[in-house]
Amino acid sequence: MPWTETCVMDERTKFIIDVLDGTYSMTELCEYYRISRKTGYKWLERYRQGGMGALQDRGRAPYSHPNEIAYQVKQAILAVKKRFPRWDAPKIRVRLCREHPGWEHYPAVSTIGSFLQKQGLTCRRKRRHKVTPAELPLTGGRYCNQVWCADFKGHFKTADGNRCNPLTISDHASRYLLCCRHVDRMGYEPVRMQFEHTFCRYGLPEVIRTDNGAPFASHGLCGLSRLSCWWIRLGIHPERIEPGEPQQNGRHKRIHKTLKDHTARAPAKNLTRQQRRFNEFCAEYNEHRPHEALEMRSPSQCYRPSQREFPSRLPQISYPDHMQVRRVYPHGDVIYLGKHLFTTESLRGEHVGIEQISEDVSRLWYCDYLLGLTDHVKWRIMPNKSRSLSSAAAALSDYKP
Predict the structure, then answer these.
(1) How far is the C-alpha of 269 from the C-alpha of 276, rounded, in Å?
(2) CB of 149 within 8 A of CB of 252?
(3) For the chain, what is the domain count?
């Protein structure tokens, strides 16, 4: 004869049936089923409230928690997430503090993140690999308008098949996005027009940092292009990162990733709607989005326009009296000491200054920008690769013709 199998639910059911039968007292039944009288009365009370189904085990989780997020706080979190769907928990918490300054307590960042995860409103981030900081003497960009960064985000096609070329300009210190505009082509004229609009609105920076692509650079002397020559005329120093080293302009590249996530996945139907997305992104990024590197302030709270106004006319080029001034011919050469000296076609029509410092060496200037050293023996120009005039002077002391 097989063993008789039983379970907890069967035992509880038999216990209740025996209690209701009334043959034995509660004390006797509890001793028989080997439970306390307190437990016996508990199961009897549950049966009276919910029948036999109430004898099932209940969850041990508490019905309420003293540190649970209040309903109004949950709704506020969901409202911010709905308005800014790509914001993470730290930015949402800062937004709650700004929108509801009267709250006594604000949920922790981890609490907000856990709540959003339970709601299915977050996704796991990809692990980012850190890169070694560049050791080149690039300008620090410690204050607003000391360094602006400019680049093309990378072209893509809108839904109607048109090519979109977003030009972006940002302030290095405050991360303020100064410009995000589509240009028809990556040439000198359309790009210069966008820079003119930006200069008129925000003033002039001291340095503009770019990569080595067109129209920012060329293969000519010092990598100067027509656009960078125009910047020099305005008193702006062009600064370029090394080829294949995008981390040297990492802050601006990081903006491109956020820009792509917000505006180009998936692209808009046409260029007009795509530009509208760019404008909305700039407003959100500059005015509302907290930035961790700015102590959770928005870029608009840190940025101030430049006090150097954009001139209505290009300033005249002037050189000290000890320099010889030469005009650059259309093919990029100048006549010096009775010989043709090739500079770059980007300077055609401009005037350069030649400062002779010895019998065999002279400096070549364009405005206040040192182009390089002229070797009178080999009759060639050694481009200035240094970042500052002091470095150029050190290179000059080591020069041996």
Answers:
(1) 11
(2) yes
(3) 4
| 169 closest CA partner among 126, 201, 125 | 201
Contact 172, 166 (CB under 8 A): no
CA distance 296 to 294: 5
DSSP β-bridge partners for residue 237: 207
Cβ-Cβ contacts under 8 Å for 375 (sequence gap 6 or more): 360, 361, 381, 382, 401
Structure tokens at 162: 């048109």
Same domain for 217 and 257? yes
Whether 294 is covered by a domain: the verdict is: yes
Range of the domain at 107: 71-118
Query: What spatial distance separates the first Cα and last Cα of the chain, rounded to whole Å?
Result: 112
What pLDDT digit, counting tens, does each position of 188-227 carry? 999 999 999 999 999 999 999 999 888 999 888 888 999 9
- Residues facing 383 on adjacent strands: 372
318, part of any domain: no
The two beta strands, 207-210 and 147-152, are parallel
CA 46, CA 63: separation in Å to the nearest integer?
A: 17
Does 389 have pLDDT greater than 80? Answer: no
Dmax over Cα atoms in the chain, in whole Å? 131
